[in-house]
Amino acid sequence: MPRATTHRIAVVTVATGAPIVLSPDMTTTQALDVIVRSAGEHIRRHSELLGAGLDPEALHQVRIGVRRARVALSLLRRPLGDGEKLAWVSTEIRDLAVPLGRARDLDVAVRDHADGLSPDPRTLLLERQSAAHAEVLEVLASDRWKDLRTHVDGLLRHLHDEVPHDPPVLESAPDALDRRLRRVLRRGADLPTASRAQRHSVRKEARKLRYGIQFFGSLYAVPPESAQAPGSAPHELAQRVARLQDTLGELGDLETSHHLLELVDAAPDEVDKEPLVGRASLVVADLGSREPFWQRGRVTAP
């Protein structure tokens, strides 16, 4: 059986997209416009790179852009009345992004395990990876993907006139951040006894909280541009949340790769998960012991 191959190119990427700088006098729809268009530009840039060559990092960055757009819609749908158009766009983005997740899971499994596999399982795993990448490229070239971009642009242009209420972002942002922080603390309160699905839920809420901090941090930092700077309150809190997300992500990758290796008749090594769960529990406890910056008001940059 011939060995499947993946062609790669060198890609220069930005880990989380361009910094978001919002003005305190913005409405919620204006803030959503800035955030989603930034995510859209991130998706566009890395989609082009991905189309030029099957590079796993470019694919990962497209997925990050998609997630940032979905998180922005999730955080701000409620204060805008949770309308049907917002819900439809969020669902359409989610559905179109499913192949990205499958491909990313296989990229991680190949990266971490392929070199240690015997020839037949390794070939099967690489073939699965190649097929998943082909599916992603098919989605990105589809009319449905292009139509989504048009729908999102139209939604953002006319959203202010269509929502029943467009509150100041300074009202929407702290409520959105409070909700996500409460969910992280509540769902992460007992990670050692949590199921895989429950831990994954904590990971998703941590991602939303971290992105929310990055989206809204400039509203609280003085000057606004300093929100992303090391040492600033938004940056430091985002880093702590990132540690929780990364730790649970590492745990999730181990479990997903275990399943993918079983599908190609490979025997995955057993891994002690307790240290990762313990590390994540400590981060949750730390988050619960601190007053978040948005509850203190604007903060001065160091």
* Rg, nearest Å: 20 Å
Structural class: mainly alpha
The CATH class of the largest domain turns out to be: Mainly Alpha
Order of helices and strands: HHHHHHHEHHE
Task: Please give the domain count.
Answer: 2
Largest sheet: 2 strands, parallel
CATH H-level homologous superfamily name of the largest domain:
CHAD domain
Number of strands: 2
Instruction: Report the helical percentage.
Output: 55-70%
Overall geometry comes to globular
What amount of the residues lies in strands? Answer: under 5%
Mean pLDDT: 89
Task: Count helical runs.
Answer: 9
CATH topology of the largest domain: CHAD domain
Distance between the termini: 60 Å
CATH architecture of the largest domain: Alpha solenoid
Strand order of the largest sheet: 1-2
In the predicted model, the low-confidence regions spanning at least 5 consecutive residues are 1-16
